Amino acid sequence: MDIEVGSRVVYKGVEYQVVWIYENGNVEIAKKGYSSKIDLVPKNDLTIID
């Protein structure tokens, strides 16, 4: 399963939702329920939740 915008993922043991995906391999993620706190992380550091 590929990571897409809206996917639920785990980063460092915490659940996030994917907000945006960049062509360079970075992904913007936000904690579920929080729209203001967005982190930019490498796609390879994320684990997708089915």
Keywords:
50 residues; mainly beta; 5-stranded antiparallel sheet; 50% strand
Annotation, overall tally of beta strands: 5
What does the main sheet amount to?
A: 5 strands, antiparallel
How much of the sequence lies in strands comes to over 45%
Radius of gyration over all CA atoms, rounded: 10 Å
Shape: globular
> What count of helical segments does DSSP give?
0
How would you portray this structure in words?
By secondary structure, this protein is mainly β. It is built from no helices and five strands. It has strands spanning 8-11, 14-21, 26-31, 38-42, 47-48. It has a five-stranded antiparallel sheet with strand order 4-3-2-1-5, with no helix packed on it. The radius of gyration is 10 Å and the shape is globular.
Compact description:
The chain is mainly β and 50 residues long.
What's the topology here?
Blueprint: E1 8-11, E2 14-21, E3 26-31, E4 38-42, E5 47-48
Antiparallel strand pairs: 1-2, 1-5, 2-3, 3-4
